[in-house]
């Protein structure tokens, strides 16, 4: 039974990671603010004025990353936002299930850069991903 649950969790994690990766790329490529923000409108000037750390997938911003995460977790009514350096994903669902928080945390942890943190919030419980993944 444990092997079955592990394979289902792995499959769900891979699918969710693929969906988020695709959404990040699509969001970054279609972003209206990708070339704005600098004094001359150039990408270099926009980067110089950005408070986002670098290294996100597809040279995305934190705003685009949160938007992509929301799209990827839309089936769970996912809402994402940044709280300081923590990417917080709020989802609907049952936090008492054995895999609650784990799949979401594994996906989120692969999207952020060093120094960022992640959390998943269910209606009745918040999972700090670093702690949650250390326990599994």
UniProtKB/TrEMBL annotation:
Signal sequence region: 1-28
UniProtKB keywords: Signal
Region (Disordered): 30-53
PROSITE patterns, sorted: TAT (PS51318)
UniProt-listed InterPro entries: TAT_signal
Highest taxon of the lineage: Bacteria
Name of the protein: Uncharacterized protein
Native species: Gordonia caeni
């Amino acid at each position: 039974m444990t092997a079955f649950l592990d394979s289902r969790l792995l499959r769900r994690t891979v699918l969710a990671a693929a969906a988020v990766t695709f959404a990040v790329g699509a969001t970054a490529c279609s972003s209206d603010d990708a070339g704005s923000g600098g004094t001359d409108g150039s990408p270099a000037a926009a980067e110089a004025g950005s408070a986002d750390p670098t290294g996100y997938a597809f040279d995305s911003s934190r705003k685009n990353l949160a938007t992509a995460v929301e799209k990827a977790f839309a089936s769970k009514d996912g809402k994402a936002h940044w709280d300081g350096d923590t990417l917080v994903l709020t989802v609907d669902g049952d936090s008492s299930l054995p895999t609650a928080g784990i799949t979401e945390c594994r996906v989120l942890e692969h999207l952020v850069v060093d120094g960022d943190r992640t959390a998943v919030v269910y209606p009745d419980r918040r999972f700090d991903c670093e702690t949650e993944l250390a326990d599994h």
